[in-house]
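Ticket closed. Logging final result for Protein asteroid homolog 1 isoform X4.
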Amino acid sequence: MGIPGLTSFIKNNSTQYFENHQLTDTLVIIDGYALTNFLYRMHENQTSAFGGDYDIMATVYIDFINLFLRCKVIPIFVFDGAYEQRKIETIINRMSQRIQLYGNQIKTSDCMPYFGSDILFDILNDMDIPHVNCDFEADAEIVAMAKLLKCPVISRDSDFYMNTVPYIPLDMITLDFKSTMINCRLYKVEKLLNEFGGLHTSYLPLIAALLGNDYIRQDTFSSLLRLRPGTFNCGLKLKRITEWLRRQKDINNALYNMTYNLPHSRDYVNNQIKNIMKEYKNTDSKYLTFVLQYKRMAKYQDGLKNYLKPNEKTILPLWLENNYRKGTINSEVMTILTLKKIFFKVQIEDYQKPPYYEVSFKILEVIFGLLIGKNYTVPTLGRKNGLNTEQLVKLRGCEC
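Final structure:
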């Protein structure tokens, strides 16, 4: 996810863009699902094909949290919610890739067990650690919260390289669970901009759009930047992008010139760029009010009261919302409510046999009935008959 090639470029030039840092007496915003995947891959013991290992994962999560608390660092975990309509194509493509990968006879160790993330929610609730499940993608909320709390972000998403919040990639942290300090390397985007001619940070959304991301194809601006389609050299791209932007009169002029000659999807790309710009400027946190309810956040409440807003309205019924925010209700519930679809997680299994989730269809129909009523039908997407990604049956909500 994020901006293709950017992470590799930054890491290959890490001495230029990172500085040594020690985390202590601070808050940090942690991208929750990025952490679960990172820690699982770090401690996975080649048994992914069998699923489980939840006891090992629980121990690792607890050790990670205790390390931060021991170093007087309060972690705030923020999690993605429902899938968004604008990412459906990307989601389906990734499902197909995983099905092909997990269907190989040589099994991969790159498969998160089904309840791997649910364990973390249980631990966070038991330890009363600040956390929140967002309605949709969490990146914008993570940035807004980090700006208000004046603290760094911890993740693995390359999108954070194109923002002004201090950023610590997970693999730049020295994780010694017995230590009393957390050594890491901190990224600040100003160093990158200075390396490429000193553009103002207000141009970051345009740089991100020109590089391409989950919403804008990488080759969209190849002609504008005089690049061959399929160019993956991120350093060359950044050089061409910053040179082109420095020739523009201002941001509005650059935005106009970016989209004026696009042969296809001009309106779509223009809207996506404006969305990126809007998220970049945003400092309103939708969920800060919820996070500040935790006891560990008590000393920050007075200083932030002017930034607090009433809890964000949601389509969730009141009886469900608090449990959803705490993660005791899975985010797939929000996908069902908003997209009226369900995407089954891809797991390692015998692909010559029906997929594992077929046995749950009757139960799901009852859940759909509770959430959206018995008169709705919900398409389901997942593996069907071997290595194909297909729409499965449409399930109709029913009464309990």
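The longest strand covers residues 388-396. No further action required.
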